[in-house]
Amino acid sequence: MTRSSKKRLNTILIEIVLITVSFIFIMPIILAITMSLQPPESVFSFPPKFFPTAFHWKNYVDAFNTVPFARLILNSAIIAVMITGGKIITGTLAGYAFANFKFRGRSFAFSFLFATLFLPAETIMILPLFNLMNKLGWVNTYWAMTIPFMASATNTFLFRQHFMSIPSSLEDSARIDGAGPMTYFIKILLPLSKAIIGGATIINFVYSWNMYLWPLIITMEDKMKTVQIGVRMLISAESANNWGIIMAGTMIAVLPTLLLFFTLQDLFVRSLVRSGIKE
Q: What CATH number corresponds to the domain at position 256?
């Protein structure tokens, strides 16, 4: 067997493995879509039907009638957009400061910030955070569900590492041309960081959209709850035995994150290819 034939065989084997793994990961989504489009008598039929003979759209109508998904989707969208925007802004600014500015205590401050990544924040901070929100009068408001999460050590670390990989000669050239720190940051650094910003946007939006525990604790009225709580409300409702309606609600909750991923995927890959810089 020639060298080219071995290389071609290895490529084929790798593609077969990747396709198999991808199918395993995407199978639950396909199953959820299929169940959401089947009537109750077909969901538990044997042998199981992986593809519906007719689309039973009534499951989606019943899901919206059982739980106010329109309002819950709006709440989740507002929360996710505000948190994602806040994390991107604070993450880029803090990462830029740690990467490009020299100040006393920088290493200690970054080490302390990095150490917070090892803290289980959702279990340690819930009670103190709830007491603080209660004193501020923010219980059952968007402020309580967004402002505490608009800064992230993860994003700061991510952007700091990325900015440190960009040659310092660019900043020197910008200074020679009369650009200040913020001009260099906005007009040069951020356009070169589209790939990392796109990836961080997807990660932060999905995290914010899928928040469950904190919105469950801090919201007292159904009109302020999020779509993830809506899915739990759907399971607890009278339709608990109708998995077609439950899967319809699940797909309603998952669809926005899938749309965001497929929308930004091309930007992410294209920006990653074009953002390579050589010293």
A: 1.10.3720.10
Does some domain include residue 184?
Answer: yes
pLDDT at site 244:
86
Query: Using CA atoms, how far apart are residues 97 and 83, in angstroms rounded to an integer?
Result: 21
Position of tokens 């803290």? 119
Longest Cα separation, the chain: 74
11 belongs to a structural domain: no
- Asked if residue 5 belongs to a domain, the reply is no
- Gap between the Cα atoms of 110 and 117, Å rounded: 11
244, 40 contact by CB (below 8 A): yes
Residue 90 three-state SS = helix
Looking at residue 84, the DSSP 8-state letter turns out to be H
pLDDT 10s digits, 141-199: 999 999 999 998 999 998 998 899 888 888 888 888 888 889 999 999 999 888 889 88
The tokens of 6 are what? 């071995």
- Could you tell me the sign of the dihedral formed by the alpha carbons of 144, 198, 195, 175, in that order? negative
Q: Which domain holds residue 158?
A: 57-274
SS3 279: coil
| DSSP category for residue 169 | H
- Are 227 and 75 spatial neighbours (Cβ–Cβ below 8 Å)? yes
267 and 198 in contact (C-beta within 8 Å)?
A: yes
Residue pair 65/237 in contact by the 8 Å Cβ criterion: no
Query: Taking the CA of residue 51 as centre, how many other CA atoms within 13 Å lie in the half-sphere pointing to its CB?
Result: 0
Peptide bond into 39 cis (omega under 30): no
DSSP 8-class letter at 190: T
Is 142 domain-assigned? Answer: yes
Locate 90 and state its tokens. 């604070």
> Which two structure tokens, joined as six digits, stand for 194?
């589209």
